[in-house]
Amino acid sequence: MTDDYYAIIFAIMNFSAFQFPLFALLLTYLALLTLVVLSGGQPLVLLSFAPLAIWIAVLVLKGRM
Amino acid sequence: MPDTLLIQLLALILFAVCLFHSWRTEGPRAAQQWFIIGYIYALLLTSLLVILSQIAFDSSMLVFGAAPSLTVMLFPALFYIAYTIAREFADPTDLRRMAYLVFLLTAALMMPFDAVGVELRWWEYPTESYAVLNGLPFYLPFAWGVTGAAFFLTIGRIRKIRFRGSGQLFAMIIAIPLVAAAMLVVISLIQLVVSWVASLGEVVAYGLLGLVFIVLPISLLFNYPRRSQRPLITDK
């Protein structure tokens, strides 16, 4: 049973050497965004996510994602 | 549940995921070097910044000395993600181009954490310098960018030196406190330059931010700056 769990984890980790850290980072930012929205944070704070959106756009346009 | 528990948990998880990924893809040696040295660097630099009243953390955070022991794990994790993305645009042995990309990426990756951290009062920057986005010091993206680039350059340069056994790790352990101390001087200089730029007017200040966050990343789509044909620093 434990081997099955390890197999699943390694399968997820191996889906791309590049995409996995990015996937973890996006989940982290999603958690931050949710927290800001739920706590009624100022909309101006959402602007701080814009540089990240630009980098995602660059990676997509370069065909790296 | 204190709010700060969440950021500490996020930092810990991101650190663990990146360490595990680095261990699997680059090997145990590279992973140990990056994350042990990165953690020491983050602890030292943050402690110095706290002592100099450049940053203040919420008192409910777990601390080691003057620095929050779990929250600073964000630094090596974000540096690693910046390094991973930078490798998509440059040869990892081309230290100058990689450092340039790590600078741009670290600035962009740290920005949301800082904005949310200040908004939710996880930490604050007790400075009277020019601020953007509801209390974020204007110099901050540049300071974090330089901090990330300096860390990458230190690790990258020492990895090019052939040492026996754990020689590289020990060389990094000796070098990184010096780099952390040097960063204080560099951050002070950045504060001076950025304050001067901000004094020229809001248009110039936001233009500088636009350059780092919009123009330079987009210029990569047009292959600018061009990749060098060979590594700028060789093994010799």
What is this entry, summarized?
Chain A is mainly α and 65 residues long. Chain A has 4 helices and no strands. By secondary structure, chain B is mostly helical.
Describe the structure.
The complex is a heterodimer of chains A (65) and B (236). With 65 residues, chain A is mainly alpha-helical. Chain A contains 4 helices and no strands. Chain A has helices at residues 2-13, 19-38, 43-46, 50-61. Chain B has 236 residues and is mainly alpha-helical. Chain B has helices at residues 4-26, 28-51, 74-86, 95-119, 140-159, 167-199, 202-219, and strands at 56-57, 63-64, 67-68, 123-124, 131-132, 136-137.
Q: Indicate the mean pLDDT of chain A.
A: 75
Taken as a percent bin, the fraction of beta residues of chain A is: under 5%
How much helical structure, as a percent, in the residues of chain A? over 70%
Give the overall shape of chain A, derived from the CA principal axes.
Answer: flat
Major β-sheet strand ordering of chain B: 1-4
Q: Tell me the quaternary state.
A: heterodimer
Total E-strand runs of chain A: 0
Q: What is the total tally of β strands of chain B?
A: 6
Order of helices and strands of chain A: HHHH
Mean pLDDT of chain B: 87
- Counting helices, strands and paired strands, the structural category of chain B is mainly alpha
Query: Please, how many helices of chain A?
Result: 4
Helix content, binned percent of chain B: 55-70%
Biggest beta sheet attributes of chain A = none
